[in-house]
Design brief:
The chain is of the alpha+beta class. It has three helices and four strands.
Length: 149
């Protein structure tokens, strides 16, 4: 595996974790958004990721731990963002301006505690990818100085 492909792998991880942080922030920001119907109510969103490992699994590259530079490298691909199908919160608040004719208000299916844990996890994952890129950069700089000695 070349150092360049390490940058690609870490970069794809950083992109994925950035999206994960953004969707988590959106979920937290909308956690208490009230609505008068289920159709209008915000639903928690989660990104879907898949790994890119075709080069590692390709039969013509057996014996190579990480594939070659010619084949696709490993990394993370964002497949999309899906809305949670968990049940919405329905509260009886007849004096609320968004209450329906029965006095109920609908709130998103966002669990703030779960979202905060998800935010900490994605933040740490992002930082680990930054550390990987910095280590690879440091290794490249050391390789360049080998010929100067």
């Amino acid at each position: 595996m070349s150092l360049g492909s390490i940058f690609d792998i870490a970069g794809s991880g950083m992109t994925a974790q950035s999206l994960r942080l953004n969707t988590t922030a959106s979920n937290i920001a909308n956690a208490e958004t009230a609505s008068s119907s289920t159709e209008e109510t915000y639903r928690a969103r989660k990104p879907i990721f898949s790994s890119i490992q075709q080069a590692m699994l390709s039969p013509d590259q057996q014996g190579q731990a990480f594939g070659s530079e010619e084949g696709p490298g490993a990394g993370v691909r964002v497949e999309g963002v899906v809305e949670s199908d968990a049940e919405l919160q329905m509260r009886y608040e007849p004096n609320h301006p968004a209450a329906n004719e029965d006095g109920y208000v609908f709130y998103p299916n966002v669990n703030v505690v779960e979202e905060m844990a998800d935010m900490m996890s994605s933040s740490r994952s992002f930082q680990m990818n930054v550390d990987i890129m910095n280590t690879a950069k440091s290794m490249m700089q050391r390789i360049l100085t080998l010929g100067q000695q």
